[in-house]
Amino acid sequence: MSNTAGWGPSGPYGGSPGGWGWAPPPPPPKPGVIPLAPLGVESILGGAFATMRRYAAPLFGLAALAYAVLGALVAGAAVIAYAAVRDRLEALIDHHRDVHWADVQPLVFAFLAVWVFAMLALMVASALVQASCVATVHDAVLGRRATFRSVWRRAWPRTPSVIGVALLQGLVAVVPMLLVAAVFVSLTLLALSSWSALPAGIAFLLLLGAAPVAVWLYTLFSFAPAAAVLEAAAPVTALRRSARLVRGAWWRVFGITLLASLMAAAMSYMVRLPLMFFTPTMQPYDTSSGQPESARAVFEQMLPDLGVSLAISAAGTLLVQLFAAVFVPLITSLLYIDQRIRREGLADTLLRAASAQQ
Fold this sequence. Notes:
This protein has eleven helices and no strands. It is mainly alpha-helical. Helix 1 (41-54) crosses helix 3, helix 3 (101-142) packs parallel to helix 10 and helix 5 packs antiparallel against helix 7 (224-230). This is DUF7847 domain-containing protein.
């Protein structure tokens, strides 16, 4: 019996007709934007761009709606705050006199109230956009059709859980920073009182060490939003789930997420740089008609150029924000699916789900 039996065209490994070559295994099934197999960096990036291209309407439409509502709410809050402190603000601008805390206090409180409201509204909008990205990735991987309404119906009920994840992520990352900041202040005061550089040096090293801890924790829990949406997990459960999936692959998850963030930053630069050439330069106050009577007169003369400048800046910021808000969560969601394919055999489940819908 020949030693080469089983390696020819009729052997279990196949081969080229009439030859001794070994045929490569068939490619993994690809019902959607990614092959249902462990993914490389190029597959993850390609899947994210393919999702943005094929599902642009639900992705960018929902993100644009979320940020438009956010802007309208914040603008409304700012108008209400301005109406409440308008008299005091005009008095400070138009009258030259000594400023006391009693004059500034209402303005500070109004600004803080608008800022807190804006941060809360931004958290809700960001969580909704992130949940919609995860829901869209699920359809994109299976090759399903996704509409604005279908993505909304899956993303909105899971938005509170994603908000909880974001709050816990912030708390987990901030607590070490606060502890280090407290130690930093204590050691700095000790250094000033003892005229010794050693406590200040230790405080500086601790401050440097806090940033890597925060990055490590952020990466460890980066899959929590995807788990909150796709597995209907509560915030704490989603964080634990993320930690289990990232463990052993931290550097890979960190590197690909960092690459996505750098690509988003490069996109921001490429969009903002051309806009700088179209933004009008605000001209100084024209003193030919005499010195301005108040700061309001200077502002009114600069308002036309200022309005155009703000409009161009807002348009560029919106484009950049939409891309970053969608692209980075898509990468993270695909990484989550990749880790489940590698560790839990999710590819078979996805293949069955894709086949069942045909």
